[in-house]
Design the sequence.
């Protein structure tokens, strides 16, 4: 099981995670075969707002996750 936590704190949300949630949900909708092994959740502010938007993948914090970076994280789920 892969766990992806998208920070929903106000800073990260405003700086890109609102869009990243949409990308992730659309990706899982498009790839139902992996949905059962991906735990996608929203998370609370982890006090790294200055580095945001932040997305945590299996405990590793990814910072400044713009759209290409989010797509790369999602594509990594297919491998
Ligand atoms: S809002 Fe995401 S780390 Fe603070």
Sequence:
């Amino acid at each position: 099981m892969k766990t992806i936590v998208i920070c929903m704190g106000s800073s990260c949300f405003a700086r890109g995670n609102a869009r990243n949630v949409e990308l992730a949900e659309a990706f899982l909708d498009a790839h139902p075969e992996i949905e059962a092994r991906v735990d996608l959740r929203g998370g609370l502010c982890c006090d790294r707002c200055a580095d945001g938007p932040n997305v945590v993948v299996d405990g590793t914090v990814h910072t400044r996750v713009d759209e290409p970076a989010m797509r790369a994280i999602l594509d990594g789920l297919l491998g």
Summary: The chain is about 45% helix and 25% strand. The first strand starts at residue 2 and ends at 7. The chain has one domain: 2-75.
